[in-house]
Amino acid sequence: MKNLSYVILDGNLTADPEERTIAGGKSLANFTVAVNHTSNNQEGKDKEDVSYFEVEAWEKLGENCVEYLKKGSKVTVMGNLKQNRWKSPEGENRSKIKVTASTVRFDSVRKKESKVA
């Protein structure tokens, strides 16, 4: 049986998505989603907080994100958690968790700019 690491994020982009082509010619878009949430502080009162999640979207999904999303766009991202591990130049173990998007719902869409001839 496979294990599951599925996540749903509902938030806003902190910057325009960035696209790049990796070895093998695949396109990859990266962006960060800010998710606002409320939690209780030590006094039991509601506290507004924000969490930031790095997202990667591959191929056509990523290309659509670059074309239609911009900083501040509201999105719902569904995907899997992925942990990258590496050693720093000082030899310390490092890791980062990202979301690999399987679906990105564009909750606010930017209209394509029309060019005047």
UniProtKB/TrEMBL annotation:
GO term, biological process aspect, one: DNA replication
Gene3D superfamilies tied to this protein: Nucleic acid-binding proteins
Pfam families: SSB (PF00436)
GO cellular component: nucleoid
Xref: CDD domains: SSB_OBF
GO molecular function, one term: single-stranded DNA binding
Domain of life where this protein originates: Bacteria
PROSITE patterns referenced in this protein's UniProt entry, alphabetically: SSB
SUPFAM superfamilies: Nucleic acid-binding proteins
Alphabetized UniProt keyword annotations: DNA-binding
Subunit structure and binding partners: Homotetramer.
NCBIfam families (UniProt xref): ssb (TIGR00621)
Official protein name in the record: Single-stranded DNA-binding protein
Encoding gene (name): ssb_2
